[in-house]
Design brief:
The complex is a heterodimer of chains A (503) and B (118). By secondary structure, chain A is α/β, with parallel strands linked by helices. Chain A contains 18 helices and 16 strands. Chain B is an alpha+beta fold and 118 residues long. The chains are: A alpha/beta (503), B alpha+beta (118). The A-B interface holds A 24-30, 32, 43, 59, 84-85, 88-89, 91-93, 95-96, 99, 426-427, 430, 454, 456-457 and B 21, 24-29, 69-70, 72-73, 75-77, 79-80, 83-84, 86-88, 90-92, 98-99.
Chain lengths: 503, 118
């Protein structure tokens, strides 16, 4: 019996080699998916799985033009067999669309109006202080100067996110900022969105009336069922969960059901309760949940909370929670996972998201900026948290001392941007997941002492790669329900048959 | 389970880029050092020591397969680089780098008579 020659080609391969080098390869990266399959991703995020033999034939320019693989690769702009001008133009247009988040420059402006807070969460990402006193509050002069800087941004859509501490403890300044922005915008004509990130505990009727009048969105924290939430988010009276539930109902009744979103932080305690956390979000009528790992900043570091679990534990938690979310959808209740939605949007549509952690170049400073209570300007909320820990590496300037040009055109921000271009980062530049990911230089500075970072030991890389692999695996499974569900998350199109949340 | 592994790499077959990319990728689980083989200057000796515990017993095979993939990536990068650079340049260009005449075109022109075919 003759051994099968090692060069035996699959049906996709042109054995006569008549078309050798008759096609050009268009830029893509690859990842071995299994022993038999390779995942190909082009520079604009289109992807396909290819049999390993067809992959070998493709890169050897031996793929038969009559094969289904060839037609598929050509249609998805992985190869070109004629004048390449048209595919290059198409790819350039797609590339420009994918990078369109750059054109508006800084759109998200975070106003940290107080460090005071009534909670003492051990994982808190900021260095909060006790409720009394105004030393840790932003002044009107500082707010006014920050608003001026915000309107220097060329972005047509501006999001004003007011946070703390607990910003409702400084509600007078919230009114001041909102009114000043609205007044100033009469001549600016930008699209403005206001969001308050609050634990809801200090919420009262007067605040709600004002929020309704000014169409303000609320973003709150919900870590899961009461025992877990109250353990993660202690406050005097240990009643954080019941306050969230009560005030969530009041806020929804006044502002509208869809005007309040929530996000959770995964602590070591949370890792054992993925299903219960998802179920609690469903019980409270949320149509989304953002499964977030702890960020290595502020109190999360001081208390050791961030170090207590590794990316692998979070990924185990994430997969179980996502399965639970999919199960709820199968049963007719619409709920989506926001991190998956961000990645799926990048994987399944031509459009970018405005999630600054997953952009290349990274969004710190050019997508989002944080004005601290004391007037200091930071490249991101994480940069501000680092500063609270004594590390001023990413302080861009001060609203009182520095001009817009010095803050947003200075060497610090330029360097930050330059060090977050994935296409030039070691470990990222050849990664198939590059079009979906980000560099996060501030995270790597914090965790590895280097803005470029070391990807083989990066928790950020491990988490993103793990989630992306899981999502690709779900899509590869061919389950039509999951494909339709993920498509609806990515595109925003409704999924027929699922319950709409009450509005 | 191994405490240390040495792998010999023929530099007449493998590019420096592919060797370094492969070594970099394995630095998550191992400390990696490279030395030239004193007996044969065409060969590099890659030494892998575990960061903690022991090395994956398949580490030599993993290295060999990764080296081939990195070699493929090096070849693909070389082949695709001109088009990749052109795509990025075209994406951010104010004019049309592929056909400068079209910069002067009028969007109302219909040189191929496409509108008449409707």
């Amino acid at each position: 019996m003759m051994a099968t020659p090692a060069t035996t080609l699959s049906a996709s391969v042109d054995s006569a080699d008549t078309s050798a080098r008759a096609y050009k390869l268009l830029p893509f990266r690859f990842e071995r998916w299994t022993e038999q399959e390779v995942l190909l991703v082009n520079d604009v995020g289109d992807f396909l799985f290819l049999d390993a033999r067809s992959f070998e034939a493709l890169i050897g320019h031996r793929l038969a033009p009559t094969s289904a693989d060839y037609r598929n690769l050509k249609a998805k702009l992985f190869l070109s067999d004629g004048d390449p001008t048209v595919p290059i133009e198409l790819l350039a247009t797609r590339y420009r669309t994918q990078k369109s988040f750059l054109s508006g420059f800084t759109a998200l402006h975070l106003f940290v109006i107080t460090l005071r807070c009534d909670h003492s969460c051990p994982y808190c990402q900021v260095s909060r202080v006790k409720e009394s006193g105004t030393r840790w509050d932003m002044s009107r002069e500082t707010a006014e100067r920050a608003i001026e800087l915000m309107f220097r941004s060329p972005a047509q859509s501006l999001k004003v996110e007011i946070q703390g501490g607990e910003p409702l403890l400084n509600f007078d300044l919230i009114r001041f900022i909102v009114e000043r922005v609205i007044d100033r915008n009469r001549t600016e004509g930008r699209r403005i969105e206001f969001v308050i990130a609050t634990n809801l505990a200090p919420l009262d009727d007067e605040m709600l009336t004002y929020m309704k009048e000014r169409s303000i969105l609320l973003s709150t924290s919900l870590d899961g069922p009461a025992p877990l939430h109250d353990a993660n988010r202690p406050r005097p009276g240990r009643d954080s969960h019941s306050l969230v539930e009560k005030n969530l109902g009041r806020a929804r009744a006044e502002l509208g059901h869809d005007r309040i979103s929530a996000l959770m932080t995964t602590t070591e305690r949370s890792l054992a309760q993925p299903e219960a956390i998802v179920d609690e979000y469903v019980r409270l009528g949320f149509d989304s949940i953002f499964l977030r790992s702890i960020s290595p900043y502020g109190f999360a570091v001081r208390t050791g909370a961030a170090a207590r679990y590794q990316a692998a534990s979070f990924l185990d938690f994430y997969r179980v929670a996502l399965d639970r979310i999919i199960d709820w959808n199968r049963k007719g209740t619409a709920i989506r996972e926001v991190f998956a939605q961000i990645l799926l949007t990048k994987m399944m549509t031509p459009f970018p998201t405005h999630y600054v952690d997953l952009q290349s170049p990274g969004g710190a400073g050019i997508g989002a900026v944080a004005y601290n209570y004391d007037g200091e300007v930071y490249a991101s909320d994480e940069a501000r948290m680092l500063a609270e820990m004594g590390d001023l590496s990413f302080r861009l300037g001060n609203v009182h001392r520095d001009s817009y040009e010095q803050i947003f055109g200075g060497e610090k921000l330029r360097s930050l941007v330059a060090h977050s271009v994935l296409e030039s980062l070691p470990g990222c530049n050849r990664c198939a997941f590059l079009p979906f990911c980000g560099g996060d230089p501030i995270f790597h500075h914090r965790t590895q002492g280097d803005v470029i970072g070391h990807r083989p030991t990066s928790a950020f890389c491990a988490k993103n790669m793990g989630v992306l692999r899981h999502l690709f695996g779900q899509l590869r499974s061919g389950d039509p329900f999951i494909i339709d569900l993920f498509t609806s998350w990515a595109t925003g199109f409704p999924f027929p048959g699922l319950d709409e949340m009450p509005t | 389970m191994s405490e240390a592994v040495e792998i010999s790499v023929d530099t007449t077959l493998h590019s420096r880029r592919a060797i370094f990319e492969t070594c970099y990728k394995l630095t998550g689980g191992a400390f990696v050092s490279l030395t030239r083989d004193p007996q044969n200057p065409d060969f590099l000796v890659v030494s892998l020591r575990p960061r903690e515990g022991a090395l994956d017993p398949s580490i030599a095979g993993i290295f060999a397969n990764e080296l081939i993939d990195q070699e493929i990536r090096t070849a693909l990068d070389r082949e695709m680089a001109p088009i990749r650079e052109l795509i990025v340049a075209q994406a951010f260009a104010e004019g049309n780098l592929l056909d400068s005449l079209r910069d002067d075109g009028n969007s109302c022109d219909d040189p191929l008579g496409i509108s008449r075919l409707r």
